[in-house]
Protein 1
Amino acid sequence: MEIGKATAIFKNIDQVAASDAEKIEAINEVVVLDTHNGITKTDVLHALNWAMKYCFIQETNVFLLERRLKHLLQSDFIRSFDEIDVYTKEYKRDIREADNKNTTGSCGTWEIQYYDNTPRFFICSNCKCRLTYRYNFCPCCGSDNRG
């Protein structure tokens, strides 16, 4: 960005119709100048005020997104879509599977696989997924396995 444009954006940071990215770039350009002739203390305070508001808004947005994510990940079903394959570095399940979750309440049962007379895996009768914990519904296919 040219110094003249950066200075113009910096001096009128509240009024100029520049994007946030351009305003940040202008602040960075002006800050590294050898001299700040023509830039008043008021201009600097306005730019600092804008930057603080911008950072606060970004931090607030991150906080709200983090809060929403923590809320969603409390569900075993939702959390099952967050698992990543260690070899391919891709998600193991397609999130669009959640749209196909069976909400009609079709019944299935858990087949229990034993190892040394101890329940080791619970296998869904509907989709045959193997889980180490018994759920009321299958996190993979959504079938009701209470029966």
Note: The two ends are 67 Å apart (CA to CA).
Protein 2
Amino acid sequence: MIPLLLAAAVITGLGDRPAALLGADGKDGYLAKLEQKLDMPGLNLLVATAIPNCPDLTYVSSDYRELPDQDMGQGNSFYGTFAVRPAIEEHIQVKGCGKQLQLNFTAARLQANPTELKFSFQIVGKTKTDLQLRRDAYVYVALANDAARTLAGQTAPCGQTVMVYDTELKTEPNGNAPWDEIWYTAKCDFRTRVLVNFIPKANGGTTIGAHAIGPAD
């Protein structure tokens, strides 16, 4: 079993963020709420899976991106309600014991309650998927992990869902050309890398394919 990381995260390196997003919370309030989000047990477990047995971790805010239009709609927004601009994806680099992991959070204010700043953890790593596409891809990735786990003879139920604990680019997206990513997955004590193929359609949407390609660290 992987131990949970109990030490509270302290984020350094936070640069300027859009004033309309910071609002009355200011930069200090934004940072405090983000650190509180990092202290969730589920995220502790994810970090401990990606960087196991590492007592000395650092958390650095590296950069952010403003969310594109396709991430702002009803189906992709936070808590089932529309987010208001500016809304961003915050990137936190977790480093320790020779390894590095990028945590990606969305930060926004909602039309239903614009005075409250909301953070939502999205995914790990350098995936180029938007919010909806990564949710769709997860279904295929989880199935690929389960299939590999079955082939490895691990058929007993374990009461866990598939965790994605890192993502990396294999080929860069370029216009409407297909691209590939590798998603690192874990379920109970079984880990595997999953190659995910993204093939944009001429009339919109993306075809997704996924299959396991071997053990993951």
Note: The chain has a mean pLDDT of 89.
